[in-house]
Amino acid sequence: MDPVDRLHRVLADAKYLSLSTVTPDRRPWTAVLQYAWLPDPLRFLFGSATQSRHSRHVAARPTVSGALFVTGDGGLTEVDGAQFTGTCRELTPDEVHAHHATFYDALLPDDTSRAEYTLPVSALLPPAEHRIYQVSVDRVWLVDTSTWLEDRIDRRIEVDLP
C-alpha cells in the first residue's frame, strides 16, 4: 500500500493519539487523547482542561511529538502506526467556532453520545476551563513494513506532507 494511503488509514482508524510534551525544566510527559484530524495541512485537534499537565507544558513549550496506531484484526501484519512531530497551541475563538462540529463528530460519531457529551462552544473559550488544542504536524513517519518483513528491523519512513 502506498505510504500516503497507509497514513490516511491510520488517521481514519486510530481512535487515540499519544502526545508527548516536555516540562519547562525538560522532563517528559505523555498523554493519551482522543482526536480529530484535519488535512492540508495535517493537523490534530484534541480537547483538554487548561490545567492538565500537557496543556501547561504546551503553553510553556509548544513543540510536541506523538504516535498513533491501529491493530486491524489483531494479526501482526495488520498493525500499523505513525509517529509525528509538530507545534501545539490553543485554537482561537474563531477556530473553535469553525471546528467545533468537526471535532465532536470525530470524537463522538453517534448522535446519542454527541448529544450527551458535546461541550458548547462557550465552555471551550476563556475563561472556561476547557480548550480545543491543535497540533500542526511538521513531520510524520510510518513503520517501514517492507524492510521489516525481510529482516525484522524496525525502521521508519518519512511521509511527505502536502
From TrEMBL:
Gene3D superfamilies: Electron Transport, Fmn-binding Protein, Chain A. Pfam families: PNPOx_N. Residues 7-98 form the Pyridoxamine 5'-phosphate oxidase N-terminal domain. SUPFAM superfamilies: FMN-binding split barrel. Signal peptide: none annotated. InterPro entries: Pyridox_Oxase_N, Split_barrel_FMN-bd. This is Pyridoxamine 5'-phosphate oxidase family protein. It comes from Micromonospora peucetia.
